[in-house]
Amino acid sequence: MPVCHEHNLRSPLPEHRAFGIRVKLKAGDPFRNLVGSEWSKEHWYATERDRDHALTEMSQKYIYFRPGDQPALHFEVINKN
Q1: How far apart are CA 67 and CA 53, in angstroms?
Q2: Phi, psi at residue 63, to the nearest 5°?
Q3: Are the C-beta atoms of residues 51 and 19 closer than 8 Å to each other?
């Protein structure tokens, strides 16, 4: 997927981004009724360190969750060869 308004980036995207995270919805999430059961989103990074840092940030509990709310996302580490 192309980046919209690349001129707004703080620095250019690296050409080679081989380390990724695939985000999927957990089974039973009602949002699947809107986007479909096969919905996923991939995020790509230039280094494993960048990817691992982003994964840590993404997988933390959202600060505005109400008591009892649980994250509805599943994160999968992926690599391009």
Answers
A1: 26
A2: -65, -20
A3: yes
- E-state strands within the chain: 19-25, 40-45, 73-79
Can you tell me the distance from the alpha carbon of 24 to that of 19, in angstroms, rounded to the nearest whole number?
Answer: 17
Band of the pLDDT at 6, cuts 50, 70, 90? Answer: low
pTM, two decimal places: 0.76
Report which of 34, 26, 22, 21 is spatially closest to residue 73, judged by C-alpha positions.
26
Instruction: Read off the pLDDT of each residue in 52-68 and give the average, rounded to a whole number.
Output: 86
* Domain boundaries of the chain, sorted by first residue: 15-79
Cα–Cα distances (Å) from 37 to 13, 65, 74, 79, in that order, read 30, 24, 13, 23
More confident residue, 31 or 15: 31
Give the start-end residues of each E strand in 5-79. 19-25, 40-45, 73-79
Hey, what amino acid is at 41?
A: K
